[in-house]
Amino acid sequence: MVDVVQTLGELLAWGTGALSRAGVVEPRREAFRLWSDGHDRTAAMATLAGAEPVGAEAASRFRDSIRRRLAGEPVAYITGWTGFRRLTLHCDRRALIPRPETEGLVDVALARARSGLAVDIGTGTGAIALALSDEGEFADVIGVDVSPEALALACSNGMASGRPVTWLEGDLVAPLAGRQVNLLVSNPPYLTQAEYDSLDRSVRDYEPALALVGGDDGQRLVRRLLHDARSVVTPTGWIALEVDCRRAEATGRIATAAGWESVTVLDDLFGRARYVLARRGSTS
User: How confident is residue 6, by pLDDT bands cut at 50, 70 and 90?
Assistant: First the structure.
């Protein structure tokens, strides 16, 4: 039997068609990324190489990637990486895939504090902690996670990036005892179980529930964090949270009730209330 040799253009057209028929929103972009990431090429290079023949092994790997995407697996888990601000991060099912909204959280956090000690609570891939280390002028940055698996992933990303971050395992601010923090940033779990159950399968079936579900009302961990963080943030220090847009105003009220000052709710790049910022202040 003679193998049929396909060109790259034909293979990409097949992948685009398969994704399109499955209802993927940007099928061509995803097909090109699944090919390019597996062959260290840009999408533009793949376009220019459309007439090149593709070997059987490479074609088989690409078809497998398309099948995984059709089954609902996120592109970042298939390719094994994602971009976050100026960083390239390894991604797998140990941690949540960083979103564009979280890139915005780094912006609003750095607008409040850029020096001293910064902490990322629930660090996951290490995205926020590494971005703060990369773009701020902090003396030290700490990434904390309760999941040892996620922390191992963050540590791996830290070594690959070369950015100096200290990684600590533990629940919320518990590992920070004795430290005084100038900036505490977090994208904590903020969905209810019912909301998690209704998510698209590409999230629900692949990304860790531990990083998404925040109790019966989605606010349990947010409340704890706003209460407990006051014991480690300096009087002039700030907390910056990414929260559910449906609960942003309520989170602001929780922060005020907990004693935080200068509480502000800001929109994300999609115009949704997403970030809650507050200063520790001098009150006890």
Answer: confident
How far, CA to CA in Å, does 38 sit from each of 64, 146, 159, 277? 12, 32, 22, 39
pLDDT of 44 reads 47
143, 139, 140, 142: which is closest to 153 by C-alpha?
143
The CA radius of gyration of the chain, in Å to the nearest whole number, is 21
Residue 264 lies in a domain: yes
Which pLDDT score is estimated for 43? 47
Q: What is the mean pLDDT of residues 22-36?
A: 91
E-state strands within the chain: 6-7, 53-54, 81-84, 87-90, 117-121, 140-145, 166-169, 181-186, 233-242, 261-267, 273-279
- In the chain, the number of structural domains is 2
Q: pTM, whole model, 2 decimals?
A: 0.90
What's the rounded Cα separation, in Å, for the pair 92 and 77?
Answer: 5
Nearest by Cα to 167 from 126, 113, 111, 211: 126
> Containing domain of residue 155, as a range?
81-279
Tell me, yes or no, whether 26 and 126 share the same domain. no
C-alpha triplet 19, 81, 152: angle, nearest 5°: 135
Residue 284, in any domain of the structure: no
